[in-house]
Structures are given as structure tokens and as C-alpha cells.
Structures
1.
Amino acid sequence: MSASKPRIGFIGLGIMGRPIALNLIKAGYALAVYARRSQAAQPLADAGAKVCASPAQLAEQSNIVFTMVSDTPDVEAVVLGEHGITFGAKRGDVVVDMSTISPEATRRMAAGLEARGIDMLDAPVSGGEQGAIDGVLSIMVGGKAEVFARVRPLFECMGKNIVHVGDHGAGQVAKACNQILVAQTMAAAAEALLLAQAAGADPIRVREALLGGFAYSRILEVHGQRMLDNNYEPGFKSKLHLKDVRIALETAIVAGVELPGAVRVAACLDELVARGDGELDSAAIARTIWGRASLD
Ligand code: NAP
């Protein structure tokens, strides 16, 4: 490992965080990790990461700290909470939040950190677990250009399409846009397969036909197959997709625009989560769409 490489901390070692952190180790970075459950840190410890007892302890030994946790309150807890990153970070350190959270909360956190001399980037991703494993994520970044330039070599270990969208929160706005597209495309795939079956055409053959034309999407390909297989092992959990569409709707209220399609898809995800399927892959939105038509 080169002596000039920054020391990296990583918090949030779930479906996405684990493979991203492993790719940083593979690229030769010294990694410190924190997980609230020791089992979550074990694969990283096995790969050579140092396991820390708290986010503060991790921040003390890192120059750049990544967070990839679930929701806005989780990022606030690991950054600002008791034994949080701010209690160990030094002036000039950078917090890079890769979770999908509220743009407004991101801006507030960035301002609070800046007052302590700590920089922040919001850097949510798209591309799923496989994209994280393969290091080909799309990364949408908000924050100062010079901080983005400093962190870019690390992003290059994780992703292929790395875009500095704008100032603090702009990455999260881009991700909210991403999630309303993904959720509605997923719902559209479920509706197309429903119509195929109800109208007497084999949904398997219909999907096959559509994949060659203008209706092609990665979602029809991957999630359409999951729907046909009735295989909803996550992937991306439905409860997290609901969280993301809600973030988009809250952002739309602040921005003064209406998103009727996102409202409809949020209702489908809400129904799915309310019936206890929040841990299933969000392709299970088909279950609410098909269930309404009594077709399964
Ligand atoms: P996940 O598998 O549920 O992992 C989340 C990780 O964060 C878990 O290890 C969890 O710890 C940890 N965590 C959550 N809250 C925490 C807290 N307050 N303190 C400490 N650790 C905490 O979720 P994921 O799929 O990796 O998603 C992570 C983020 O990426 C989410 O914001 C999600 O919306 C976004 N995202 C996911 C995907 C995807 O395809 N999965 C794609 C793009 C973006 P425990 O294990 O102890 O619960």
C-alpha cells in the first residue's frame, strides 16, 4: 500500500456497504470498519480491516469516512449521535455519505460539519448489489468540487459512472429522481406481465419479446425475471424503496411540484410493507399489483 493513500473508515456493512468496502481493501486502502453487530464486520475483518468499537473511534484513525447505512436518522446517529463520527473526526477530514437519505437533512448535516472544519459529500449510488460487487456503480455526488476531486480515486474503486451533480444535497436529489424512475418502471413491468397473462399471452414470452425493443430496460430484464420466478430475495428491500419514494415526495413538496406517478407507486410499496413484506426485494411490488387483480 502506498504511504500517501488516505486512511479510510467505513460504516454500514450490509448488502451494499460490504462489497463496496471489500473493493476498497482490494484496491490497497487501509480500512477501519464499524458495525453495530459484530457478525456484519466479520467478512471485512477476515479481509484485513480493523474493527472499531464506535464511529468516533473509527473517525479518529481515518481521513475519509464512508457511511452506507439505511435511512436519514441512521446517518444522523452515526455522524452526530453519541460516540458518532463528529466526536473523533479532525479538521480536514471528509465524511462521504453513500446512503440514500433526505437532501434537506444532508444539507443541514454538511453545514454542521463544515462549522467544525469537516467536509461532507453526499454520494448515493445506483446499480444494486451486483453493481457494488463488480465495482460498476453509478455514483451521484453533491458537495464541493475540490472535495469531490480528493475523493474521486476512491469512487473509482466502486463505480464507473461518477457524476459531480452539484452542491450539498444535489447527489441525493439525483438519487430521488433515480428512485422514482426505478419504482415506476418496476410497477410498469408488473402491470405489463399482468396484462399479458390476463389477456391470454404467456408473460414469459411477452417479456422475451419486449426485451428486444424500445420497452427494454434493465428492470424488465432483472426484476421482470424475479417477478416471473416469484423470487424476492433482496436485492433491494421494499422497505428501503418505500423510504426512497417518500424522500422523493417530501423533496417534491419542498420544491413545489407534484409527482402523481410517484404517489401511486408509493401507495403500492406502502401496501407491500404494511402486509409484512418489507424485507422482500422491491420487485415484490408485483405482489400488490397482481394481488389487486387476483392474479398471482
Ligand atoms: P442493508 O443491507 O439493510 O444494510 C444497512 C447496513 O447499515 C446494515 O449493516 C445495518 O446494520 C447498518 N445500519 C443501519 N442503521 C444503522 C445505525 N443507526 N447504526 C449503525 N449501523 C446501521 O441495506 P443496503 O441495501 O446495504 O442499503 C444501504 C443504503 O444504500 C440504503 O440507504 C439504501 O437505500 C441504499 N441503496 C441500496 C441499494 C440496494 O440495491 N440494496 C442500492 C442503492 C442504494 P445492521 O446489520 O445491524 O442492521
Note: The first strand starts at residue 8 and ends at 11.
2.
Amino acid sequence: MEADIARSLPDLALIVRRDGIVLSCLGGNAVRGLDAIEQQIPGSHINALWPESISGHVLQTVRRILKTRKPAQQRYQESELSLEMRFQVQGFDRVLIVCRDLGQGATSNDSGLYEKNAALGTSAMLPHRDGFEKSLRMALDMAALREDSVGVALIHIGGYITYKRVFDSALANKLLEAAAKVVAEHLPEGRSNVPRLARVSDDVIGVVLTDLRSRADADGAIGAIMKALKFPVEIDGQIFQLAPQAGVTLSGTDGERAVELIERALATLDAGRRQGEDRLVTFYSDTLRIASLTRLDWQQELTQAIQKDELELHYQPRLTLATREIVAVEALLRWNHKVRGLVPTSEFLPIAELSGLSVQLGRWVLRRACRDLAILAERGFPSMRVSVNVGRQYLSAESLAEDVASAAREAGIEPSLLDLEITEQMLSTGHSGLAALHQLRGKGVRVFIDDFGTGYVSLGKMRSSPLDGILIDRSFVEEVGHDHEARAVCRAAIALGHAFGLRIVAEGIETEAQAQFLVAEQCHEGQGHLFCPATPLANLIDRILVGAKDAPASVQRAAGR
Ligand code: MG
Ligand code: MG
């Protein structure tokens, strides 16, 4: 039974010694020219398996990789025979060779697929989705051997349906054949001769892109094809303009199985077509960014991001307005997803709240901010403060005070270098959290109200709360130039801050005029793009803080960078 299974495997696996003697072998059902000697392979020399021109090279490769200990792959061509072999060292002096017959299936015409350079004359030759799937599976197998990737491009030929309705289906089919011919001519040369072109539905041509090392490879290949398809085609002396659009998936990042890759390429094509005719190529990873994933997907991804440390903090400087000296930096969470790109906090923070991840997230931010404070101190900025935004759930969690203490201890920094930002709403509702804030202030941590002016904290509450400062919301600051009500709110907030003895910070300062107004109103500090946008820690230290140390005015110049 096991022997039957082993024999039925298409690829041939051999363990070969340095001297070329085959110690054992498995499978090889689809490798031609071996049947006659199947029983005698173990114990024989590889010379007996293939012609000298191949076996000589195989032996050379075996000896070479026993020296280098690095895997290798080779392709051999000998009259009718086309073989791909992968070599891998096994133990001290043995090599595993996996041999695949590329001729099998790859050159036969019964699959009903187009082949590059084949005559693309009649619709009888047009293939269908089953053949495409089979072909894709072969390409995926080969890519696994070579450790590269395969792409699926589904190209919709716009206009086909109209031509079919207005003229006749014969003309419409000729149009599609012409398009297929253009695609075949512009398909990059592949290392394998798997058929790579098929008609997967009435007006969609499927293309298997092989030998891909990166998304850029796929981009280049499909880009060239689409560019060629935009040229008018001539059929029976008449000129036609095609309107092609493509959806692309890549093995590895967008799916592993053939069916999966085709289905997703179809969905991607649809998403691209919904964006209008100008959208030539859409990659699956791009549509993911706009697609609304289920909460469970996000939750899972976010949990992983926290565990795998895929999140980062960017820092936006806060300055004393009168002197333009940087006194603190606000830590802002960034999630740069490897496929989706930068995920806005407005998308993932609500998910974190809903799924109970916000405490974990808050803890991660605290720990990272403390670690970065230690780095700042080490790089010559020992009194730089870091301001951390604390979410509602984290404030009510029992552990906040303890977490701050342990994060500071672990990083070896003073907790008094930390500012915490909470919202007005949290002040009016977060009873359990207030105790933690009192405790933390006892250790020198400062507490600020974020987005001040947008909530509804009572004056009584403000007076009795453990507070050190307020951050006036950017929506008022942005308008001070032309809105007298915004100016009035800013003035009132500043006056209130002074009355309570609080530190007053204005957020979102974008122009010099806004800064001047705030200085005149005796606002203490400010942050905003006028001075500097949020930036990664390394950039903050090397390009902003170091420059600002020498000449405070350079902070302004840094803003443009
Ligand atoms: Mg904030
Ligand atoms: Mg804010």
C-alpha cells in the first residue's frame, strides 16, 4: 500500500552519495524514462538513470553543494527530456534530489490552454477556467521548489459585451482572440513552459505570472501587458479600441491555493472596475485597504501586531511658545500593516475598545514610551518629557498605576518624565481611574486634559480633579485666524487654565499668526505642523532635537521635512 502511494508520486526523490550511488528513491511516476529500471535504482549509479550530459552535471552539483552546504536548483534539457532538479544536503555526505519532469503536461496541447507563440486563430482553441486552474497549480508547485512566487492576473476586456450585442459574437470573439494574442506577445519569458494564458470567462483573460521575486516584478509584467492592450487592434480591416482592466493576486501574500488566488483576483478585478475605467490594474492588497474587514479579522491582526511588535510610536514635539524650545513630545501610535499599509488610528482604536484589546495596547504604548525616554536620556536629552494618550478602558483598568511604575522601572527612567493625556469625558465618568491618577501624580506624573473644549467637564469637576494642564483642541486653534468665536473659546480656555494654575498647551498650530495670537494670550506651550509633524524616534533625535539644541530656530526649518 505505502509502496503504491510512493510509486504514484509524480516527482522523483533520490538520496545520493558523494560518489553518485543512489541510496534510496521514492516516487517518480511522472518522470519519463525511468520505468524500465525502477527496481534497480537503489544501489545503482546516477549514470544509469540519465544520459551522461545530464548525470555528469548532477554529480558535479552534488559535490558542489556538499562543499557549500547550500541548496541548489538546476534545469536540464536533453532532446525530449526537460527536468528540473532541486538539491539539498542531507547529513554529512548525502544529498536529496527532487526531480520533476517539466515535459509532463507542460508541452501537451490537450489542456486546452493557449501557449505562448502558439497560433491563436480559432475560438476552438480558447481554453476555460478548469485548464487555467490546473496550469496555475503546476506553476505554484514549481514556485514552491524555486522559492519564488506566482501571480494571477485576470484581465477584463471591456467592450466585448457591447461588440457582441451591436455586431455579432464572431466579431466579439475575434476581438478577444486579438487581445489574447497581445497578452501572449507581451508575457515575460518564463523559466517553465507551463501554459499561462486562458479564457476564464466570456470577457476575462486569465494570465499566470511566473518567476516573481517581488510585487514590483508583478507590477512590471502586468503593466507592460496592459500598456500594450491599450493600443487599438485591427480586425477585418477595422480598428477597435479595447478597454482592459486587471485584478492581480500574488501567491504567498494573497493566498496559497489556486482556487483562492483566482477567486480573490476576481474580487479584486470587480473592486477595480467599480472605481472606474481609468483604473487599469488593481492588486488584491490594495483593495484590502478599502475593504471593510470583519471585526474578528481586525481583532486577530491587531493581537498579532501587539505580540509581534509591529506597532510603533511616532513623536510630535511640544514647544514653549515664547522660546520655541522643545519641552516634551507626544507619543502617537502607528500601525504600519505589512499588507494594508498605514492603518489610521481612527480605524483600529475603536476595534481595540470593542474587543477589549485597549488595555493591552495601552500597556504596550507605556512600555515603549518609557523605553524611548531612556533612549532620549542616553542621547543627551535627560529632561525631555513624553506625553502618552490613555484610553478610557485603560484608565478604568485597575493596573494603570502599577503599569506606569513597572514600565518606568524596567526602562530605568523617572515616572516624573511622563505626561498622561485623558479626555474631558473620562474625567466626568472615570471614577475608578481618578484614584490611579492621584496616585500617579504623587510620583510626579503629570495629567493633562486632551482635546479641551470639545467635551463637557464641569468647572467643579476640573477643580477637584488631579490635573496639571490642558491641551486646547486643534479645531479652535485652527480657526483663530478668521473665526472670532474660536478666538473667544481659546481666550476662555487660556483664562480658565490660568485660574486653575494649569499648564496650557495649544494643539494643531499651523501658521505663525496662530502662534503669535497664542503667545499674546499667554498660552504656555504649543504643538503643530508649524513646528514639526509627528516623526519616528530616530528622526526626532537626529534631525530635530540635535539641531534644536544648537539653534532653537532650526525647529521651524525642521517642520518642512
Ligand atoms: Mg493627545
Ligand atoms: Mg490631542
Note: Residues 450-451, 471, 507 surround magnesium ion (ligand 2) (CB under 6 Å).
